[in-house]
Specification:
Two copies of one chain form a homodimer. By secondary structure, chain A is an alpha+beta fold. Chain A has a single domain, classed as Pnp Oxidase, Chain A (Roll), CATH 2.30.110.10. Helices cover 16% and strands 38% of the residues of chain A. Chain A has five helices and twelve strands. The first copy, chain A, has helices at residues 15-18, 61-69, 82-89, 98-101, 134-137; strands at residues 7-8, 24-30, 33-39, 42-46, 51-55, 71-76, 106-107, 116-117, 122-130, 139-149, 159-163, 166-175. Chains A and B meet through strand 4, strand 5, helix 3, strand 11 and strand 12 of A and strand 4, strand 5, helix 3, strand 11 and strand 12 of B.
């Protein structure tokens, strides 16, 4: 599978890759093991520092790894990885090594121990910023501390989950830049 | 503009319209006035009861209306409303009546005082369920108490914000239902 050569990317602009609501792959590391989970329930929360919220079910093998390590990497895949995305979501890290099983390449992160996924076009290194609602709602609030994004594709064909095994693939881009007040851009 | 005839919709299934990450229009009512704001930072949080989180900036005219009334309606527009969406996001309810200004029809909700927007194909009536992170993060956690969705279009062309005045329009659907474990559907 294609690996993306990513570059440093401004933290201020990460919304460009997360606000559209794509399925992301969350990688983690804890006590010498790594894991990957799919995540569809997430949101931007702040520009600076860059905050991002994500829901993790307690039943996920990644839950304790991420809660204990207080770190993860949010990786954004495109539609060419659809079968890998589905396979990751339908298997458990308690039984398999997902990097090995799904032939994914673990890249070295700069600020966290969790690995980047080289086959994803964007990877965001995260440290846990607020765990207030982790016990009651499963809501982890992350500070993105380092961003890596491949310069192309410019408008990546991300996948967005509709439930029931169906995905929406990112379609055409539409600019209305001229209709925005400058302070709203 | 086209009004959608919506029907009752199972609360359990609202993720089908929200998890993909569309721009939504949030309508509110407080002390005899109504307002509408655009929202792109939001996420599903729970199936039953149906919980949904959304970020509202304190600078929005809707902020106090929603914080005080503890209610809102989350309406999902499609790409035919793109110019209305942009105009709503670039104007303030402190200066104009957005329903009147943008020729939108306020429908009667069942469980809340905030109006439905008839031109949106889906509307979700919400009551504030958790305000823990409202002061610090602007994060409102809503319980969706009533859902209305038009039976068509089946795969609506929602719009997803990329920042910088650019939108991604929902593209084709892709099913991988056959690759899911039954308990994961």
């Amino acid at each position: 599978m294609k690996r993306h050569a990513k570059r440093d990317y401004p933290l201020m602009d990460i919304r460009r890759h997360l606000e559209t609501g794509p399925i992301v792959l969350v990688s983690s590391a804890w006590r010498g093991k790594t894991n990957i989970m799919t995540m569809g329930w997430h949101m931007m929360l702040q520009f600076t520092p860059a905050l991002f919220g994500g829901y993790i079910w307690t039943g996920n093998h990644s839950y304790e790894m991420i809660r204990q390590s207080r770190q993860c990497v949010i990786n954004v895949p495109t539609v060419d990885l659809i079968d890998t995305i589905v396979a990751i979501g339908n298997s458990s890290g308690s039984e398999i090594d997902k990097f090995k099983e799904f032939d994914l390449s673990a890249g070295q992160a700069e600020r966290v121990k969790a690995p980047l996924i080289d086959e994803c076009y964007a990877s965001f290194e995260c440290e846990l910023a607020d765990d207030t609602l982790v016990p009651d709602k499963g809501l982890f609030i992350w500070q993105v501390v380092k961003a890596h994004v491949a310069p192309s594709p410019k408008n990546p064909k991300t996948v967005h989950y509709r439930g029931d095994g169906e995905f929406m693939v990112a379609g055409p881009s539409l600019s209305r830049r001229g209709s925005f007040k400058p302070e709203m851009l």
